[in-house]
Amino acid sequence: MGEKDLFKLTLACLLALIGWVNPGLAADVADCCKQLYKNGEYEQAFPVCCEASEQGDSHAQFILGKMYYFGKGVQQDYAKAVKWYLKAAEQGYAKAQNILGWMYNFGKGVQQDDTEAVKWYLKAADQGYAKAQCNLGWMYNFGKGVQQDYAKAVKWFCKAAEQGNANAQYGLAVMYARGKGVQQDDTEAVKWYLQAAEQGNAKAQFNLAVMYARGKGVLQSGEAAADWYYKAGLSYLKEGKKDDALRCVERIKDLKTALHLSVPNAFLADKLLPKLSD
């Protein structure tokens, strides 16, 4: 957005705040809040979003919660983030319900409470929100805030996975690989690992490499295994997980020395190793 357009938007928002809006300049206060936040104009967005939130706009309340959570345009305050996430969640805003569940899940700005986390995850999941469905799957998988139930974990992972959620695709693959809540099926596990791996999920990339190395659910291939270990290593480095990346280097080397596989791309280990010190 150019300076002229930004000036017009800011002016329109100021006019909206005092109740004098020129229809040719902008929409209402809530729209100004959303646009300023989207443009990264956090200090300008904060008072506008506060006004829109007080007026009851759920999207603005969600944005205000994010501003407090990340400290954008205002001092970071998890408790206030929870306050605004809750207001939006109570209006049925799925994204807010999911993040509120996460806040309870990890005790951010509120006392840690897995049962309350499940409550909010479920509300968002029932609306079809994939991230919440995935989170709910993990809660059932580990028995956190709810009785452990692998079949229900699979149910929710599947719903989210079919929407393209990489973390859920990984979770569903694990369930098939281990035969938890579903009949054990390496081929199906590979299918879901691959979908998550192609989206850059490091754990899925690593596990897919393992499947190729062992020939489980797929034709055994040292070359394919090395390729996925390398990709997993790069993904782990992006996440700052150097120990996991180093494990990928060691696994590539083991393909030839321990598993005695043909690995024409074994050089990927040497290519990945220097990146650990970058």
Structure overview:
α7 packs antiparallel against α8, α9 (150-161) crosses α10 and α13 runs antiparallel to α14. Residues 20-27 have low confidence and may be disordered. It is globular and about 70 Å long. It has 3 domains: 1-91, Alpha Horseshoe (Serine Threonine Protein Phosphatase 5, Tetratricopeptide repeat), CATH 1.25.40; 94-199, Serine Threonine Protein Phosphatase 5, Tetratricopeptide repeat (Alpha Horseshoe), CATH 1.25.40.10; 202-278, no CATH class. The chain has 15 helices and no strands. Helices cover 68% and strands 0% of the residues. By secondary structure, it is an all-alpha fold. The longest helix is centred in the last third of the chain and has 17 residues, at 222-238.
* Unreliable stretches covering 5 or more consecutive residues: 20-27
CATH class (first level) name of the largest domain: Mainly Alpha
Q: Which percent bin holds the helix content?
A: 55-70%
CATH topology (level 3) name of the largest domain = Serine Threonine Protein Phosphatase 5, Tetratricopeptide repeat
Proportion in β-strands: under 5%
Report Rg. 23 Å
Helix tally equals: 15
The counted number of beta strands is: 0
Question: How far apart are the first and last residues' alpha carbons, in Å?
Answer: 35 Å
Order of helices and strands: HHHHHHHHHHHHHHH
The CATH superfamily title of the largest domain: Tetratricopeptide repeat domain
What CATH architecture of the largest domain do you see? Alpha Horseshoe
Q: How would you classify the helix and strand content by structural class?
A: mainly alpha
Counted up, domains total 3
Mean pLDDT: 93
Net shape: globular
Characterize the main sheet. Answer: none
